[in-house]
Structures are given as structure tokens and as C-alpha cells.
Write a structure and sequence with these properties.
Elements: H1 6-21, E1 25-30, E2 34-42, E3 45-49, E4 59-62, E5 68-77, E6 82-87, E7 105-111, E8 117-128, E9 131-132, E10 138-139, E11 142-146, E12 157-160, E13 165-171, E14 177-181, H2 182-195, E15 201-202, E16 205-211, H3 214-220, E17 224-231, E18 246-250, E19 253-254, H4 258-264, E20 273-280, E21 283-285, E22 288-290, E23 292-293
Antiparallel strand pairs: 1-2, 1-4, 2-3, 3-6, 4-5, 5-6, 7-8, 7-12, 8-11, 9-10, 11-14, 12-13, 13-14, 15-23, 16-17, 17-18, 18-19, 18-20, 20-21, 20-22
Amino acid sequence: MPENNPFAALSDAVEAAARRAAPLVAGLEWGGRHHISGTLWRPGVLVTSEQSLPRAEGYTAVLPGGARVAATLAGRDNTTNLAVLRLEGEAPAAVHAEPGGVGALLLALGSDGGGGVTARMGVLEVLGPAWDSLRGGRIDRLMRLGLRLGEAAEGGPVIDAAGRLIGMSTFGPRRSVLAIPAATIARVLDPLLREGRIARGWLGVGLHPVTLPHDLAERAGTPHGLMVVSLEAEAPAAGVLLPGDILLAIGDAPVATPRSVAAALGPEQIGATVTLKLLRGGTLATPSVTVAARPA
């Protein structure tokens, strides 16, 4: 082989990065047959993809090298697609990092189910700003990966070329591959460990998207809104909103879809009094309501 072969050097560097990060990878079993991947985030704590983790009576973590230990579900949050489990055993000190630029090489690691590791290489295909998931969870950066991910690899670590941990792999819309950023995981991990869930704001109202006729759209300043179709008893919005009201904004945030409502009622809104902008009988109204925590 010729000296100074750049392809061989790249291969050696990728292999070395995967080898350094392999101790972060664990498998997660249930029912004795199935497994997905997880990331050993810190000693005694494993994170994985919430959407791929079924509800089971018990889980077993397969640690690097093949040792199996019991894993106990500590919390799950479908808005950020994170599940957190406690387990026995140590974890290496992971170096967390922000992603590089578009085109940067990345590795998505997974568990082979027996204590070994799988690896898939690709590039950072899209790097965007913070975004809200369909269920209203705040994701600190949009990171779409240009690689194919095996079903069992979801939930494993995503590392950069230096072997630094930038996030956890997951499937997005239309089976695209995303990384949940390390910053998002760090933000929700401790609340999940303490409370078992991420409390979110709640008004207790059922809403249906509507398109406003031209005259109402001009009055409202928008062609779209959400009609109130139901109210839960004892809910924060009971007595404030009425069936038939058309909700236009929560505070300063326009709302026209359930996703926009979820984004406007994040954890930080719990206990806050917000002004609602709405149409009632064709007339603009701005009542206030105090946001409560969604019941568990």
C-alpha cells in the first residue's frame, strides 16, 4: 500500500473514533428477545429513544463487553423523544460537543445486542436552529444525518470525527435520521430522573383548526385559528373560553395548529398568567388565564 494513503488514514481515524466511543454504547433488552440501543450518558444513567422503547415489566441493559444488568425506567418524555433508565455499573466520562458544520463526518453507533458495537458513517446533512417537535418539545438544534440507521441502532450515541458525543440518534419524519442534541438531553435529564416526566403547560381545551372567512380574517389579522370544541371541567380555561370561540394567539405566539399550541405551553409557562387573543361572536377579545401543569 502506498505511503501517505489518505483513504487508509481516514479509515484508521474513523475506526479509532468508534473504538474510543464504544464504551458509551449499551443494548437494552425486554422480553428476552428484542433489543434497541442506548447511550451511557453518565454513571448509572442510560438514555434511549422514547418512541422505540415499549412499556414492559422490566428491562436489561447489555453493557460494553456483554455484562447484563437490570435497568429501571426512571422517566420518559415523548415531546423530546427521550427515555431515561437507571442501572448498575459505571460509565466513561463522555466529552460532549456542539456539532460542526454541514458536511462534517459523523458516526452513529449502536449495540449489536451482545456487548459489541455497530457503526454507520455519514455527514451532517442539515444543521438548523432550535425547533419544536410535533408534541411541543423544544429541541435545541435541528441535526439531520445523511446516513441509514438500523432499527436496533436507534437511541445510540452520535459522535463527531474527534469521538466527541454530540447527541443521540433517532428516527424523524419519513424515516429520516436525526440526532437529539446533547444540549437537549442535558436540559431534560435531571427533571426526568426526579419527576419521571416533563410537566408541560395545560389549558384543558379541545381545539380544531379552522379557516376564517375574509371579513373575520381581516379583523383577526390572520386567516387561520383554532375553534374551541370542548372544555374539561376544572381546567384553567373553563369559564374563560367558550365553545365556538376561535383562539388566535397565546401571549405573543400566534396559534393555528395543535403543534403551535403545544409550543406555546412549554414547561416555563406553568403558573404564568397569559393573555389569549380570540374571536368571540365575530368580536376580538383578550381574556387572561393562568396556565396549569398537564395532569399526569
